[in-house]
Design goal:
Distance between the termini: 49 Å
Subcellular location: Cell inner membrane; Cell membrane
Organism: Larsenimonas rhizosphaerae
Family: Belongs to the binding-protein-dependent transport system permease family. HisMQ subfamily.
Membrane topology: Multi-pass membrane protein
Number of helices: 11
Radius of gyration: 29 Å
InterPro entries: AA_ABC_transptr_permease_3TM, ArtM/GltK/GlnP/TcyL/YhdX-like, MetI-like, MetI-like_sf
Length: 396
């Protein structure tokens, strides 16, 4: 016996061009073919034009002798070094100023962002002036200001500004003591790593213990004891195996110690202050996005303001802060390429500047330079997205 719906005619699949999924697949394939054709045409025309003008192509030039000096090198470099080594040196200098800028900008930005919400009228207004001043002046002008008007205007080495007869600042840079590890110092380094791992495990255990029993361990002194106290104790027990090479004035300049070039100092200050102004607004907006009921509940539980900020407000605000802060980190890394304006030997100045002028293979050099910034940006985005995923809210 037939049921009522069995007698109805079945609707066929219909022509393939009426299927939305099939049409979408065809359009995507056509788009990929068109994009690959355009890229292939550009590469073919570029190679033909370079060959017609007698310009060599390829990356064999990386093995040739560079023959020019670089003011700051984190690895060994001399007149016989290759262009490939200049690429590595420029990359390391870019990573150095980017890492220093990210750390300093984060600390300054969080401090100013929280200060903007302070009940202290003067402190809040000073933080507002800072944000409105530094984020509305072009970064290049700030770099030139710190380099020309501030650091290069410092006194000569003989009239250097000193701090405790160990740190000296003048127009030629910042001179600080250089550490010289002795035998047995690496035991202190191992203790620092072990203490850091133990602190992370203790923090994780403390969170589990709090969710299970509602009680917390006094982590305010446990973490410093593990991260700082343990390495210091090992350092003292092993006989303090660390000496300092203090810079000393000899002739017309300082010798010994560690020298921070004025170009690096100016670029670091400008990048940190400029980016921190944007991070401060991100922090302010993130804190204000937390419902006020959270703060009122913390006050009802008699939590002190510092604990309320650290344990209640900031953890919730980070879910709003992290995605926006990722963009500022990427901007700082890319803005470091402005170092070429003051002669800091970063990747753009050393490789895309001096090396390009000597070799003339612009396509390969610019492609390598752009690839570096692309990889750095993708790596920072990946790390920040992993951290953001760990701090995101999860449905239960």
């Amino acid at each position: 016996m037939l049921r009522p719906f069995d007698s109805l005619p079945r609707r066929g699949r219909g022509p393939l061009w009426r299927d939305p999924a099939a049409r979408a697949l065809v359009f995507q394939v056509l788009l990929l073919i068109g994009l690959a054709s355009v890229i292939g045409l550009l590469v073919h025309n570029t190679l033909q034009n370079l060959d017609a003008r007698g310009i060599n192509t390829g990356f064999d030039f990386l093995d040739n002798r560079a023959g020019f000096s670089i003011s700051q090198t984190l690895i060994s470099y001399d007149g016989n070094s290759t262009y490939g080594r200049t690429f590595v040196i420029g990359l390391l200098n870019t990573l150095l100023v980017s890492a220093l800028g990210i750390v300093a900008a984060t600390i300054i930005g969080f401090t100013v962002g929280i200060a903007r919400l302070s009940p202290n009228y003067l402190l809040a207004k000073l933080a507002t002036v800072y944000v409105e001043l530094f984020r509305n002046i072009p970064l290049l002008l700030q770099i030139l200001f710190w380099y020309i008007a501030v650091i290069r205007s410092m006194p000569s080495p003989r009239q250097s500004l000193s701090l405790g007869d160990m740190v000296f600042l003048n127009g030629r840079g910042l001179f600080v003591p250089a550490p010289e590890p002795q035998t047995g110092f690496w035991f202190s380094v191992a203790a620092l790593l072990a203490g850091s791992v133990a602190a992370m495990l203790m923090a994780r255990y403390n969170r589990q213990r709090q969710s299970r029993t509602g009680r917390r361990l006094p982590m305010g002194w446990i973490i410093p004891a593990l991260v700082l106290g343990l390495p210091v104790m090992v350092f003292l027990v092993s006989g303090s195996p660390l000496q300092w090479d203090v810079p000393a004035l000899k002739g017309f300049n300082f010798s010994g110690g560690l020298t921070v070039l004025p170009e690096l100092l100016a670029l670091w200050i400008a990048l940190s202050i400029y980016t921190a102004a944007f991070i401060a607004e991100i922090v302010r907006s993130g804190i204000q996005s937390v419902p006020k009921g959270q703060t009122e509940a913390a006050r009802a539980l008699s939590l002190p303001p510092r604990l309320t900020m650290n344990q209640v407000i900031i953890p919730q605000a980070m879910r709003v802060i992290i995605p926006q802060m990722t963009s500022q980190y990427l901007n700082l890394i890319k803005n470091s390429s402005l170092a070429t304006a003051i002669g800091y030997p970063d990747l753009v100045a050393v490789f895309a500047g001096t090396t390009l002028n000597q070799v003339g293979q612009s396509v390969e050099i610019m492609a390598m330079t752009m690839a570096v910034y692309l990889v750095l940006s993708l790596l920072v985005s990946l790390l920040m997205n992993i951290y953001n995923a760990r701090t995101a809210l999860r449905e239960r």
